[in-house]
User: What shape does this take?
Amino acid sequence: MPCVSSCPTYRLEKLIMIRRLIALFTLLTSAAVAAPTATPNILFLFCDDLSTQVISAYGEKRKLLETPGLDRIAKEGIRFDRCLVTNSICGPMRAVIQTGKYSHANGFYNNSNSRFDSSQQTFPKLLQKAGYSTAVIGKWHLMTDPVGYDYWQVLPGQGAYYNPPMIENGKPVKHEGYVTDVITDLSLDYLKNRDKTKPFMLMLQHKAPHREWEPALRHLGHDHDRVYEEPETLFDAFEGRSKAVSDHDMGIERTMTDRDLKLVTPGNLNDDQRKYWNEYYEPRNAKYREANLTGKDLVKWRYQRYMHDYTACVKSVDESVTRVLDYLDKEGLADNTVVILSSDQGFFMGEHGWFDKRWIFEESLRTPFLVRWPGVSKPGSTSGKIVSLLDLAQTFLDLAGQPQPSDMQGRSLVPLFKGEDPADWRKSFYYHYYEFPVPHRVRPHYGVITDRYKLVHYYKPDVDDWDLLDRQKDPLETKNFYADPAYADTVKELKAELTRLQTEVKETLPPPREAHGNAPFEGEPAQPKKGKGKGKKKAE
Assistant: This one.
């Protein structure tokens, strides 16, 4: 007689079956929770000389420009408010990103005589070995060809804004059109034609908004001749400051050229482009010449022209970001792509009467840093942690699930992307700028940065001065508190921290003479020149 539901054997077998099903369900759900997500794609959107002041997501009070494309990354991810650079100048920071090492450790100190040693360890080489499809498109500016990339197409040297020549995997090519559009088109082509069996790491690197701030023709007059609010320190007199700060050659008053100010027409425009250019600029230039401005009136006019041109260049970048984000959405790539937007350093928008970068001052030191990681990073969040472009190499490797070499000098930002708050996160940061006297006569200096203070030492060739900046008491950074007795303990503590950081990053002082470039200091014999890199242009 068969066993029925009332049979003890039947009830035992049913109980065993239920327990096995429960165990199986538990195993499957545990595995699902523990299983890692697919290896993410990495899209690095990089600009040259892009300031936080011009990105509307950063809330600068002058409201210089609305940037909905850039703001979208911040709205859908994280805005980092204290991303600092190690050496505020183009080529050196690009070398820092490639290697995860300070300039003294990777050998690329300046834009004058440095050449990138591509035989050294870099993060793209490691990602390539890990199975990533790697590409860099746009501005490279490291004086040697890219290595570690499955595909590359880069501008020679600084590159041209209009009809740019480029180098594609070692072969020269020529493009028609505006450089920001060209780089965007090439990057989208790469994404469409890449090896889709692999995750990708694409470095989309714009020339804009680098000097001489030549806009896309469609953006000429974008601001309808707006009068931009001036920065409070446009006429900074540098009272009580080191000679190193006042004796510069990067001021709106003393340094801007006719090319910067669009008083001459670029030489690489075609006939149609030149006609459009002249129709916009020439009537305005004629009024300027008639006015015969001098003194502060001349500085004010130059500032307004600078703001129009710079913001117009950023408009094209903003459009590029929108196009790329829309493509990720359309192709179903957005959810598994980490998007990072940054720049090689910040830039002065007239603060202290300056344009350019180089200084340890906030506008130059701090660079934009926006991150979107769908499903991981909290949309609309912000972070005041001290982070750096130095951290990117290790961050990229961590995102890819790869080990981080012990000789890299930054730290993975992945915990911060996840909203974690590491108790041991850095509270101070080391900075060192080397290049002098060309092109802008900014004295070499190093320093330590905390949330509140900067202790700076200007040390070459005719100065030996210290600045103490207190961002809490003097957010515009116009005063030197170094000799104030009330700050004696602060100076002592910061000098000790500076020494600790220099030991930690293994920098031996003074740096080698070649770190400052080939141009002789005053009264010094000329330095021997090194070989020139492919496509090398003037230093900027």
Observations:
- Residues 21-36, 531-539 have pLDDT under 50 and may be disordered.
- The longest strand covers residues 41-47.
